[in-house]
């Protein structure tokens, strides 16, 4: 009896895919540093920002002032606190990146999984539609959608203020960024749909799917309860690599004057405004540019680390 207990205690316990991925991820120092840098940036933008001065407060008597106790990084051309504006601008940029990625992932997983699992003519029609959408310039479509949706959301926000007595400033801020969420997300799912489809084509031939069919499970249950959860590895990697891409698109649109509008701000707008004073007040460009660059680098390095950690072909140590 004792010998059996000892042998059971000494028996090696196998690791799951996620446990193996965590152990490999922990050894990647660059990915870990990037992860904590992203966490730190989120903490600054969504927690520390609320303890900073009002980013929209104009003080023309205090414009272009240097760092001080009341303004840690100085003020801009209108006397507004640079540090506060950078953190609140980061809120918009990060929200656009994460929310648009969530929209794209939701659409991409459903479309890709349905296409791969259905197969045949359905798969051919969906994939040819994806190929057609791929041929359309992404930024052009986003700009058109953003303009159309922005007009609709402005009318909707006005109706909400009049009929529901909501705060006009709050609704205008929300209505301003929703079009970017939708426009980026609606056309950001194409690559993920292809990735998920390829995974599903492989998974649907596996034994566990055949066993589920033998048990009489419906096609929808097999797809959403058994197949799609096994595509989460590539999906997580895609998400971490897509967030910085969407942040970059938002910055590009805002830099061109087609993205976020006042009273909202973003890193793209701050970089655009800072470029106008590059020769005389370079800190207006350097500070938001530094936050923007560090965030993009951290997210990209984190995505690379997750890709290596979740690679099923990686050797176990």
What is the compact description of this entry?
This protein is mainly α and 317 residues long. Helix content is 72%, strand content 0%. The protein starts with a helix and ends in an 8-residue tail after the last helix.
Could you explain how this protein is built, in words?
- The protein is mostly helical and 317 residues long.
- The protein has a single domain (28-49, 82-309), classed as MetI-like (MetI-like fold).
- Helix content is 72%, strand content 0%.
- Helix 11 runs parallel beside helix 12 (267-275).
- The two termini are 33 Å apart.
- The model is unreliable at 7-12 (pLDDT under 50).
Task: List the topology elements.
Blueprint: H1 2-10, H2 17-27, H3 29-46, H4 82-118, H5 120-134, H6 138-164, H7 168-186, H8 190-203, H9 207-214, H10 219-227, H11 232-255, H12 267-275, H13 283-309
Helix pairs in contact: 2-13, 3-4, 3-13, 4-5, 4-7, 4-8, 4-11, 4-12, 4-13, 6-7, 9-10, 11-12, 11-13, 12-13
Radius of gyration: 24 Å
Q: What is the approximate shape? A: elongated
Query: Mean pLDDT, nearest integer?
Result: 78
The fraction of residues in strands falls at: under 5%
Query: How many helix segments?
Result: 13
Can you tell me the residue ranges where pLDDT is under 50 for at least 5 consecutive residues?
A: 7-12
Helix-strand sequence: HHHHHHHHHHHHH
